[in-house]
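Hi R.,

Here's the chain you asked about this morning:
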Amino acid sequence: MRTLPPLARFGGLLATGLRDVTSDVAALDGSGFWAVCADFEGRTVCARFAEVRPAPVPAPVPGAWRGPAPGDWLSSLDRAAYTRGVRRIRERIAAGEVYQANLCRVLSAPIAPGAVADVDALTALLARGNPAPYAGTIRLPEHGVEVATASPELFLRRHGRTVESGPIKGTGRTEADLLEKDFAENVMIVDLVRNDLGRVCTIGSVTVPDLCAVEKHPGLVHLVSTVRGELLPDAGWGDLLAAAFPPGSVTGAPKSSALRIIEALETAPRGPYCGGIGWVDADRGTGELAVGIRTFWLDRAAGLLRFGTGAGITWGSDPEREWHETELKAARLLAVASGDPVATEP
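And here is the predicted structure, written out as tokens:
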């Protein structure tokens, strides 16, 4: 199979000419333009590129992406296992162990034999069929990172000493579908993110400029809040990620308890899904990492394309409704990846 050259594509910029790769996030406070992919389980790949130029996502090229058939996808948790997991989380909530936990499943489908499987070509389809504010590509085949994301969620944005997070909790087909449970869930996660940022921000600087704003995306709506703060003078990217990772919106509250529950109930590693994906311009002191949701990644060793979907579980959760929320979040993206011409219409 032909090896594709390394690149990264975010926010109308194309980065090429790979210079070096490291797992040391302290490098992000050094120099250069970096693409960052941090797996949910903690593996982080930071890739510095020599050349960065404005470049819009190209139009899809017929035949450049050959996705799996719609019926090829298999889930790490089937409907029965997922709804059973929801009930178990409610039992943990009743026992006072946790207030909310995110339960996720990983979908996998075989890569077509002989297919080039270029994640940048998949990004072109996603940009047309499911545009998203934090969409991007990281293609590092020799380092095991090939990711195409259509993430709508901001994990961390940094401009100088100002940092910001935009947690999403609450999803429906329309605004009318949003329940009291969705608003309560969002407020819980905002409190968690405030606490995370408060560990590395100056006292009194952490604010919530927007709480539970409704954002419309292709095929669904989200509740989105904004949390902002000013970094301590000696805090860098390493401190910020240590305080905030993994993202609160895809773990739960308290985070430590939610992570124990996730480990016990989920049967597949999340990988880039629910991690942090984006870019850092160390020379300008800016950066933007998305929460790795609505994200595809290639697992070359297994010959699979993978995609994750999940939902936040609270005491007010109905197991069947939560299963259907995971289906809603996945449906349009899987259709795009499988080449459905209706789904790829702008």
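One quick note: The chain has a mean pLDDT of 94.

Cheers,
M.
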